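Hi everyone, sorry if this is the wrong subforum. Our group has a chain we'd like a structural model of before ordering constructs, and none of us has done structure prediction before. Sequence below.
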Amino acid sequence: MKTETTTPTGEFGGEFAHRLSSTRRGARLARLLAVQQMRDWGLTDTDAAELVVAELANNAVTHGRVPGRDFEVRLALGDGHVRVEVSDARGEREPQPASVAGPGRPTESGHGLLLVAALSTAWGVRSRSVGKTVWATVIV
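Answer:
Right subforum, don't worry. Here is the predicted structure as tokens:
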């Protein structure tokens, strides 16, 4: 398992990446490590970014889990924002916000993505050679 990568790149830059087990404990640890990294970067208003990391990590271990495969959380610090990326091994299951289900068709999932959309300036999904990456940009 990959441990951790942290790269400072100047006053308004830095990158953090960590691979974790696809378990609820791994998702919780992803949030805790992300919060610590943002504090190490000197950020103080990180509540929105923390919630985005928590939701995307939870989705990765709930919907993107492949037995024996880890997920990865990556943060990239920019001028006034953090880009959060969470990668998992299930590329065929793209996230769908609850609103996609349509009126009169209640869904049991996707509500957390509405939170991600509300807390970020942009979010999306991109394919990888194995799996997918869900990303969001959050103002800090």
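For your construct planning: The mean pLDDT is 88. The longest strand covers residues 71-78.
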